[in-house]
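note to self: the first set is below, dont mix up w the second
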Amino acid sequence: MRGGTSKAVFLAADDLPPPGEERDALVLGLFGSPDPRQIDGLGGADLLTSKLAIIGPPTRGDADLDYTFGQVSITEPVVDYDLNCGNISAAVGAYAVDERLVTVTEPVTTVRIHNTNTGKVLVAHVPVVAGHAAVKGDLVVDGVPGSGAAIALDYADTAGGVTGSLLPTGATRDVLETPRGPVEVTIVDLANLSVFFPAEAVGMTGTEGPEEVTAAHVEAVEAVKRAAADRLGIAGDGLVPVPVAVAPFRPYETISGGTVDDADLCARVIGGRPPALHKAYPGTVSATTAVAAALAGSVVVDAVGTARSGPLRIGHPSGIMEASAAVIDGQVTEATYLRTARRLAEGVAYVPR
């Protein structure tokens, strides 16, 4: 299924071995990893199209299903499970409707998704037509051709999935020591644990496309990520905290050759295994970015210009993504965005033995 600017292979948990080496070996074989082209499997040979969604019955009473996300490495025999994908989360909502994992109502069905990666429940509001998840609609997602039906994702109740707190250090701003010197950061744990820092601190402008990101940029970003992980006392070799370089907005050219003339800030994510520039913007991180923009004193506020709740337009390599957030007395009351999704294929896949 496609969800937003990503694609994933959806598997039923009951069809897989239990979590562990046997399951991961099967997944790697299914995707054709490790191989830069993933030529012998279903992987799409790109960070955004080498993704896995495992769907099972709910293991908690406030959810309709369990959803485990896997980021399948293209070049290493590794499947990472330490984060969620917000674009694929939209596809999970559509999948739940079409597979009748929830009671389907029109015109909108609410799907409560227990993301096992973070241990939190997010909510998808899926438009329904004739008993199925709607596909046609007017929402345009930059980085996806055409338009589709808008699925609303709500992450307001996902704070503290990794660290137990929205602000893991207790502050909206910290200083981390890196090989390039001290870097001011804001660490937010909502949707996906993320670390925000000024693009200039890693030698970037915040408007880069894939061809403009150098090995030096990647290493500087990874150094901030490792320093943040060390500050939080978590493993430094995982995919979180997601490192996000932010900068005040300035016009730039998208990867498709268009021009972005207006947004509230520029943001670039370099992550994955191996780390590379995300060609779009992670859905989860858009919610986290909007929340950070509402926190006075954060690094994101520096880029935006003033602390603000409500809609936030984020400039990324494929265009603009809008998210909306509100924080009242330290509690997140809104963390939402819209995506489109649709089923691309279904059937039987064959795995090498």
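second set (the one i keep forgetting abt)
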Amino acid sequence: NLGFFFQIRTKSKMSLFGGTSSFSFGSSLTTASKDVEVQQPPSDTISCLKFSPNANFLAATSWDNKIRCWEIQATGTSVPKAEQSHLKPILSCCWHADGTKLFSAGADNQAKIWDLASNQAVVCAQHDAPIKTVHWIQAPNYQCLMTGSWDKTLKFWDTRQSTPIKSFNTMEKVYCADVIYPMAVVSTAQRGILVYQLMNEPAEFKKIESPLKYQHRSIAICKDANGAPTGFALGSVEGRIAMQYIQPADPKDNFTFKCHRSEVTSANQVQDIYAVNDIAFHPQHGTLATAGSDGKYSFWDKDARTKLKTSDGCPQPITACCFNFDGSIFSYAIGYDWTKGHEFYNTNLKPAIFLRNCGDELKSRSKK
């Protein structure tokens, strides 16, 4: 029972609750792999992980129909704070820009806004099919919630109104999306890629032909040296990432690379290929992390086009990952992702969330 509520701390400039102390847990508090397990994890596969934009609070959504929130203390200890429920599995979540509210959406065709101070959640968006993605947009002249659904629409909501302020037909089911103002990128079934500009009001910007041959699974926007969105990384079920820039100075700036595949040591050996379940860019270094169905996460330097690190294998696929606001914590979730079908589902293996003090592991090796 997560019967904890958030305590408002009005003196904090970074957040209305919680502190912003650095994350510095040591080896005495970690497992053999040096990754700390979060307490009281969800009871079913984790679909999404998101840190608060300004404090070390971690939110997770799950197929057990719940969204949960933990405070991650400077020692690495995770403190369960509160939870809310949907009627069906929750597929996505995001934070309000001020860190006081969470949005969740899922298979009950609804999105909810959860006020953490009052611990109250109310419906703020509705679709005709499950909502796969939810993102908060904080623009200079407006703010809204973006929801992408399997009903083949992308909608933008003023959370005080019952009807969307904008709606776009995506032609296919929305599978994944990301937002960094003033850009949104959405990937759909049939390998569709749609880019939207968000200045003044949301509008279609361009469609991009997919550089990948197989179904898209994950997407994340990257930024340039000035913090402006410049492109995105796109992951597929075929163990491959595409780095794609919106306006590349040179077409060769766009490239793809293989990842999350088994090592082949002989000519007769068959290579296992795994889905890229999630992608996250480091908020300071611009390097990226990928999470795979092979139960491994990898860190990459896109500018140097090199791998920085690959983890040891986990007993289950990694289904989601994220960095905290200052990039000192890397969080990832393990659980069954059903890529091998029901016959490989092991009831003895339970979902889990881990925290890694990633420190200098994601520093770029590029000269740029």
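remember for set 2: The chain has two domains: 46-208, 210-367.
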